[in-house]
């Protein structure tokens, strides 16, 4: 059963690969990109070795490269990797890539990385706990992990789930990402959850495409972004 969920996640992104970068023309994606850029500028040093685990079409990979990092870009979607090669392959000598099922991320390389970026990946994996263990083994001591995960109490996801169920009564498909995006994290347990895998949180950023800062004082964001260090 778990394997089926995983394959559906890959298939879902395969279909979106050719147009994925165009999403960043949307205001919500631009805001999220700006937030990730702020985080990466603070954490990436020229010459650092970084693993972009779940690189998608390479938008965040490019940020890492522009900051002077040596990057291994990995994704379970072969079509996403093809976009990375097409858009970035000839521009950066510091870029390597690999098409690899992220459930086997430990096979990405035998080396340890100064930093690992994992954006919007965890929720699509059938065994996120195993993935976290593998990520730990790929991170240098005191290395950085920048990772995002949906909040268990996201108002937006709750509304999407509710509307999806209602529309299914009329055989209408909507918010299809929910068929493959499963894992969510309770913010209250984030500290202990990451520490159980050998990571300590030292910064958290909340992102939501709709809720304002004042609204986020009341409601949980759609996405939690954590900056952690391996301990």
What does this protein structure show overall?
This protein has about 230 residues and is of the alpha/beta class. It has a single domain (about 1-230), classed as 3-Layer(aba) Sandwich (Rossmann fold), CATH 3.40.50. The protein is built from seven helices and seven strands, in the order ααβαβαββαβααββ. The model is unreliable at about 1-5 (pLDDT under 50).
Characterize this entry briefly.
This protein is of the alpha/beta class and 231 residues long. It has a single domain (2-230), classed as 3-Layer(aba) Sandwich (Rossmann fold), CATH 3.40.50.
Radius of gyration: 17 Å
CATH topology: Rossmann fold
Put simply, the count of helices is: 7
Could you give the distance between the termini? 34 Å
Give the SSE layout.
Layout: H1 2-16, H2 27-43, E1 49-53, H3 59-66, E2 70-75, H4 78-88, E3 95-99, E4 113-118, H5 128-138, E5 139-150, H6 155-168, H7 190-195, E6 199-207, E7 223-230
Parallel strand pairs: 1-2, 1-4, 2-3, 4-5
Antiparallel strand pairs: 5-7, 6-7
